[in-house]
Every structure is written in structure tokens, then in C-alpha cells.
Amino acid sequence: MSQEGYDKLVAELRQMELVELPQVREAISEARDKGDLSENFEYHAAKREQARLLGRIRFKQRVLANARVLDTSQRPNSDSVQLLSKVEMTNVATGARMTYTIASPHEANLREGKISVKSPIAQALLGRKSGEVVTVHVPAGTMKLRIESIRLS
User: Fold this and answer.
1) 68 vs 71, 83, 128, 151, CA distance in Å?
2) Backbone angles phi, psi at 134, to 5 degrees
3) In what helix (H) or strand (E) does residue 99 lie, and over which residues does it extend?
4) How far is Cα 11 from Cα 142, in angstroms, rounded to an integer?
5) What is the rounded distance in angstroms from the CA atom of residue 136 to the CA atom of residue 145?
6) Rounded Cα gap, residues 151 and 153, in angstroms
7) What does the pLDDT look like over 116-127, one tens digit per residue?
8) Does residue 1 register a pLDDT over 80?
9) Torsion of CA 55, 56, 58, 59, to 10 degrees
């Protein structure tokens, strides 16, 4: 995982623990003060929200506990695709050019141009070199991609 992705997960966890969780606990307290809990919709909704939030917090804690931050400055300058590589490629059939960064599953965000290392495209690209044509099996069928350039991000 990149340092940027790690820092983002830490910030999200802090937000949930220090802001969202106290708000949910306050909502439970307010709903409890309204009387009969067996028919109190607000209480049950707040308890469900608390359970959902605690599950997300535990998940993020596990991810951070097992995360390994890759120092991009210490990586050898490789000419093959690897984790945190920025790959520019062309769809051979359509001529469309695209650029993606191969990221950890927790950092993947298509809007930012980051695809998961576990995605079909990334799996097909890993270990390949610039100029190679790669056949990728995606849900929509099969496509051929030519790797134009590889940069370390």
C-alpha cells in the first residue's frame, strides 16, 4: 500500500472513532430517554447504525494492522509492471488510450485512475514490459491492450 493510501485509511478511522461513533452513542442515549425501547424505532435504528459503524471500524483496524507501506523511493527502477506502477496502454481494437496506477485493493478508485492489483486488467499486466500486447479477460469479453509506458508513481 502507498503511504498516501495508509494515511487516508488512518484519517478515515480517526473520523469514525472520534466523530461518528460519539454521535451515534448520543443518538442512542437520546432515543433511550424517550421511553419504551420495544417500540422505539429511533433507538433500534441508532443501535443498527452503531453496529454497522463498529464493524467498519474493526475492518479498518484489521486492514491497518496488516498493511505494509511500500517506499517507492527504495524500489529498483523496474521496466516491468508492478504494484504502484503507472501504466499507459492502448486498446488495440479501438485505439483508446488509458492510464492506470496499479494499487492495493483498499486504494482502488477508478475516478482517480487507480485499479486494484486483483482486477483482471492488473493481473494481466503484472510482470509485463513496455511494448507488449496483453490479452485481458474482462466481464464484457476479451480485449487486447498494448503497454505504451510504465512509470513508478
Assistant:
1) 10, 12, 23, 21
2) -115, 135
3) strand 97-103
4) 39
5) 7
6) 6
7) 989 998 999 988
8) no
9) 120
Cβ(144)–Cβ(133) below 8 Å: yes
3-class DSSP state of 148: strand
Q: Which amino acid is at 128?
A: R
Give the residue carrying C-alpha cell 422505539: 40
Question: What's the rounded Cα separation, in Å, for the pair 129 and 81?
Answer: 6
Counting beta carbons within 10 angstroms of the beta carbon of residue 17, is it exposed (0 to 12), middle (13 to 18) or buried (19 or more)?
middle
Closest by CA to 136, choosing from 85, 98, 104, is: 98
HSE-CB at 51 with a 13 A cutoff on CA atoms is: 6
45 Cβ neighbours under 8 A, 6+ residues apart? 31
CA distance 15 to 9: 10
Is residue 84 a contact partner of residue 18, using CB atoms and an 8 Å limit? Answer: no
> Do 89 and 145 meet the contact criterion of CB atoms below 8 Å apart?
yes
Instruction: Give the pLDDT confidence of 48-107 residue by residue, as tens digits.
Output: 999 999 999 999 888 888 878 776 666 666 678 888 888 999 998 898 999 999 988 888
CA distance 67 to 1: 7
